[in-house]
Amino acid sequence: MNSSTSAYQPVTAKPSQVQNLWWRRFRIRLWNWEYWPTYIFNIPVVFTWLWNALKARDLFFFTLTNPGIETGGFFGESKSAILNNIPDEYKPTTVLLKATVEEHLFESIFEKSGLTFPVIAKPEIGERGWLISRINSMEELKNYLKAHPIDFIIQTYVELPLEVSIMVFSMPDGSESKVTSICEKSFLTIEGDGVSTVEELILASDRAVLQFEKLVLKFGEKMKDILPQGRRLMLEAIGNHCRGTMFLNRNDNIDEAIRVQMVKLLGTMPDVFYGRFDMRVASWESLRQGKDIRVLEFNGTSSDPAHIYQPGYSLIKAYSDIFYHWHVMYRISRQNRRAGMKPERFKKIVSALIIYFRYKRTN
């Protein structure tokens, strides 16, 4: 069986299967805070936001952390506009497909841009893996965009073996710059024993069982295949936590060489001082040398230090790390305000928020 299997199969899980899994999955989510709903996990974060807002005397002080990105990168920002500021040598071929583009133009767009399948399609505005999909053919792409008639960016799928998320900041006055978080992504994978079916191996994995219905839809009748001894099957090729990817704390790799490369990369974006690069690299050494790097996405003030989602990471330490990053945003925003920059006004924030939720609700 090919490890990149992604063909859609119109098969659904039996109600009894899902019902029997409910209690087990509830316990997994309850005792492992990495699976808690965002709105619950972020309750304490609201208080650190308000505390820093009180010090800044501005509820939306964080928009001044990255004046070069709409709302500082908190929500509603354009992915393509951000990537346009990153040198071509550091990113995969990326094209913005507007919702109004005519289908017959797809092939010429691919030819002119140099895009080749497979590609990754992701909404121009979105987060946390929403609607991201690996597309393997022109027919799949046309069907996908018909189902979701919104602006998408299309990226060549990057085969480099190591996917990481790295948070970095640089003070506007140049007094301090630092890499604060490195997370390595381990994709949702099972390993065959020569006896068990794909379905049985999924059910034996706490992480995979949380994705059970999606995997049934993805693999269909192949769920009954027996995976040979030692054969590994990647269940999900998209590196998002909500899609089953395991986030691993790799802060022990932070050193001066990586700091220099990441600060250099951050510096390519005008008036952007803080955020997280989601990227693929050939190796840790190539990252230190600034070679074989492909930035898939950059997230601004809404981004978390992803290393905290390492299984077993202390909840108290996770909040401590998040609070530290909010303080960094406050410090950057304070310097930018002193330099004469103005934060987004309440009316504009509300307007952007309304547009953003309308955008998601219609898709």
The overall pLDDT average reads 87
Number of domains: 3
Contiguous helical run count: 13
Spatial order of strands in the largest sheet? 9-6-5-10-11
User: Any idea what the shape is?
Assistant: globular
Structural class: alpha+beta
**Relative strand content:** 15-25%
Helix proportion range: 25-40%
How widely separated are the two ends? 33 Å
What does this structure look like?
Keywords: Membrane, Transmembrane, Transmembrane helix. GO terms for molecular function: ATP binding. This is ATP-grasp domain-containing protein. It is a single chain. About 35% of the residues lie in helices and about 15% in strands. It has helices at about 15-30, 40, 45-55, 80-85, 105-115, 140-145, 200-205, 205-210, 210-220, 255-265, 285-290, 315-340, 345-360, and strands at about 95, 120-125, 135, 150-155, 160-170, 175-185, 190, 230-235, 245-250, 275-280, 295-300. It contains 13 helices and eleven strands. The two termini are about 35 Å apart. The strands form three sheets. Strands 9-6-5-10-11 form a five-stranded antiparallel sheet. It is an alpha+beta fold. It folds into three domains: about 15-30 and about 190-235, no CATH class; about 35-90 and about 160-185 and about 245-360, no CATH class; about 95-155, ATP-grasp fold, A domain (Dna Ligase, domain 1, 2-Layer Sandwich), CATH 3.30.1490.20.
